[in-house]
Amino acid sequence: MRRATNQDREVARRYHAATKHTWQSVRSSGHHLDWENKPFPYKVYPDLPVVPLPRELPVPGVSGLRTIAEAASGEAEPVLDLPRLASLLFFSAGLTKKKTYPGGETIHFRAAASTGALYEVEVYVVAGELPGLPAGVYHFCPGDFALRRLREGDHREPLGKAVAEPDVVRRAPATLVLSAIFWRNTWKYQARAYRHCFWDSGTLLANLLATATAEGLPARVLAGFLDDRVDHLLGLDGEREASLVLVPLGRAGAAPPPVGEIPPLAPPTVPLSREEVDYPDLRAMHAASKLHTPDELRAWSGPPPWPPAPGGEAVPLQPLPDAEAPDRPLAEVILRRGSTRQFAREAIGIAQLSTILDRATRGIAADCLGGAGPGLVDLYLIAHAVEGLPAGSYVYVPAGRGLESLRRGEFRETAGYLCLEQALGADGSVAVFFLADLERVLERYGNRGYRAAQLEAGILGGKLYLAAYALGLGASGTTFYDDEVVKFFAPHAAGKETIFATILGRARRARRGLLAEGRIERVAPGAPTAG
After folding, report:
1. Residue 50 belongs to what H/E stretch?
2. Domain containing residue 494
3. pTM above the 0.70 mark?
4. Are residues 361 and 247 in the same domain?
5. Which string of DSSP letters, residue by residue, matches 399-442?
6. 449 assigned to some structural domain
7. What does each C-alpha distance from 245 to 92, 197, 268, 350, 456 come to in angstroms?
8. Contact criterion met (CB below 8 Å) for 203 and 465
9. Tens of pLDDT, residues 74-115
């Protein structure tokens, strides 16, 4: 049988259609959660050398709003040493909170949001010689806040050969590689989990990019690479666990030495569950969006070729100037961040919404995006309670920094229904939906564009999270009835597909004494976990 390629776009179309939520599908799937078989949240290599990470970390004290909106210039690039690397790992993927229930059960939460708190995204480090860390390929485990060494030596040269911008990787002192262990998310969400892997990578990347900016380190997102080469370097099988995105950190590294043949690598790991369920649709989607040759890689890379979408008459944003905006440090923003479970049905101000949108949409440094230029996704909003903005539906016009009104009216209950009949969509102040012209994306990028659209939406959603918490508000990602969202925003959204959604608003304060809800505490880097 012929292997599907990146240009076999029907694979992405079929996968997207098969994993849509409908009123009927959520009631007839027959899927139930086997709690006895829930995957273990950490990847554990029992036999690999351990490198404990420092517990005393540089704390990103720069304004959170500033770091969301800007990127480090690299003009005065600091040395990427082990403490700075540990800080980047902690504030993007580390354990930051724990919740203890009355019966004694404890669950841990991480710095970035993850669908269902299942944390399927893993982080690897491919480093040259760093102060405090020998050159090598490492896996990061947030459970004990340590690295495990997979390979000795500097492997930046072969990693650079797997991307379209080789010097960006070769000259970076270290590159982080995000992967996904699919079963951790499919356990609950089945084949739709492939979308979630990129949403969750995106929220993690929003934290990472902001932390890198706070540290003065240039960082760039590389969503295009030769999958099998990167998986081989990390010892991944490419089916059960696969690489998703690379992030070179810094530009001041010395040129790496050449590397000979890289032997296969398959160190034992602790099983996640007693058994794992396979989802062929997910595997097929991932396989058909791989890049296999340098020619494919060159053809894939580059920003979207289309111009900014023309907008109609728009309500101009009223973002707070930097001098008037809260200067809450990024570290505090990340440590406070959570996924708001209940909103208060209270209004936020137009300046707050404007500031969130303004800071979150100033561009993403990525190989498939145009920086501050047009992206792959568009932002549609349902405003319920924003002082200074009539209730109704809107589309965000980034070129004009404004909101084009689509329909006036009260749509709280409709938004709740669109968000899979969850109260979040109705109770927040604003529901933000990310939509994409998927046909145009697939035409330009092939199936790989499906990954890129999901990833961009995840990064933007993560930036909305951070901006909201920087302003003392709440946020939560959510799922949706795919086609119903498009119908609601029609005719403007005709021909588009729903990619992701984020709710913004004021968090409802829980009454003290409700012990059944559990107690949440912050966790210091390297604090012991019970498993």
Report:
1. strand 50-52
2. 314-505
3. yes
4. no
5. TTTEEEEEEES--HHHHHHHTTT-HHHHHSSEEEEEEE-HHHHH
6. yes
7. 14, 11, 24, 35, 12
8. yes
9. 777 899 999 999 999 999 999 999 988 887 788 899 999 999
